[in-house]
Request: fold
Amino acid sequence: MTAIRNRVEKSANAFRSIGEAAAELGLETHVLRYWETKFPRDVKPVKRADGRRLFRPQDIDALRAIQILVHGRGMTLKGAKSLLAEQGLEAVLSGEATLGNATVGSPARELQQTVAKAFDAEISSETAPERQERLEGALVGLTDLKARLDAIRDKRAA
Reply:
């Protein structure tokens, strides 16, 4: 009976089991269960009396949008949730969603970009001996830091 079930193609409006939904999206079932807990507003599968989940077409669309944001664009789940709340599923699925609003004002992102720019500018202007001297200085600093951390760890262990 399973072989027959695998050959039957479901309509676009049919409900899908968690295995079928996972196969359609190319994800594992535990990922769908986890996303269901993180996106309760968007992913609400119907649960049968025996506890099995049946994903509706709108649930599949929501999961696909989350997959685009998280796996395709590299967003965090929190960022994806925020973007979905701001711009909606349709904007993400159609490719019209912009990431600009989701990352504006992020101090971590700004710091990351500032450090990257400074590092790129510094590297492009230095010669090979200057680069080696800078790296050796960094190594000395890191070695000193490691020695301090080891001493603190040994002190706490005693």
The chain has two domains: 2-103, 107-157. The helical segments are 2-7, 18-25, 29-38, 57-72, 77-94, 100-103, 107-125, 128-157. The chain is about 70% helix and 5% strand.
